[in-house]
């Protein structure tokens, strides 16, 4: 062992690594419970649970390297992104978890609250928020709920070459929109969207689905920015949430 590595730490939760063990401590014990339950239900590779004593959860390390990181260029080949899409397809085709996710009305309320906060607090210009919000509203439509990961950032997908070795951090798993998972995975790497959709293999209407994915990119950027600032992260870093909002605001539409 080379000591204790702080993987992530903020007011809601912290993750430490000691050798081959990850220790997660969460201010909300229900989140670690949901994470354990989700990993048991998900038909995809996950970390092994070593023990769970709320509010702490110990997981075995998973081999492999992150598929990518928000704000950094990806070095993973297109086939690895397609493999991630195939893993998502298995998850989305699995039986629904017994707990619900956010409804369309809840998504709309959160979008309204966060857009208002971004403007009132002077975080982003009102015209930019308004343009990006119009793009984000594409997600506010009915969908067929599936088993979603809920926070499928590319660094939560570990790969060895073109094989997915594990999917991490299941605390946000729930019933939801399949395209939300696709969007979180590709938000910082839009050039890989086609690879992920190809791997996912579902029947897709590329024009409609790309429009909704772009809506989820905008929704994620708009709704995450204030939380990130409040918890010591930098959404203004190159390629991160604010750049995603700016890109949505400059496009404003399905094109």
Explain briefly what this protein structure is:
By secondary structure, this protein is of the alpha+beta class. 43% of the residues lie in helices and 18% in strands. The longest helix has 25 residues, at 206-230.
Would you mind describing this structure in some detail?
This protein has 255 residues and is α+β, with helices and mostly antiparallel strands. It has helices at 29-41, 78-92, 104-120, 126-136, 178-186, 193-200, 206-230, 241-251, and strands at residues 4-9, 13-18, 21-26, 49-53, 56-60, 65-66, 146-148, 157-160, 163-167, 174-176. It has a single domain (64-251), classed as Aminoglycoside phosphotransferase (APH), C-terminal lobe (Aminoglycoside 3'-phosphotransferase, Chain: A, domain 2, Alpha-Beta Complex). A hairpin with a 2-residue loop joins strand 8 (157-160) and strand 9 (163-167). The longest helix is centred in the last third of the chain and has 25 residues, at 206-230. It is globular, with a radius of gyration of 18 Å. The mean pLDDT is 93.
What is this structure's SSE topology?
Elements: E1 4-9, E2 13-18, E3 21-26, H1 29-41, E4 49-53, E5 56-60, E6 65-66, H2 78-92, H3 104-120, H4 126-136, E7 146-148, E8 157-160, E9 163-167, E10 174-176, H5 178-186, H6 193-200, H7 206-230, H8 241-251
Antiparallel strand pairs: 1-2, 2-3, 3-5, 4-5, 6-8, 7-10, 8-9
Superfamily (CATH H level) name: Aminoglycoside phosphotransferase (APH), C-terminal lobe
Per CATH, the architecture is Alpha-Beta Complex
Uncertain stretches: none
- Mean pLDDT equals 93
Can you count the beta strands?
A: 10
Major beta-sheet overview: 5 strands, antiparallel
Distance between the termini: 51 Å
Question: What Rg do the Cα atoms give?
Answer: 18 Å
CATH class label: Alpha Beta
Q: What is the H/E order? A: EEEHEEEHHHEEEEHHHH
Strand order, main sheet: write it out: 1-2-3-5-4
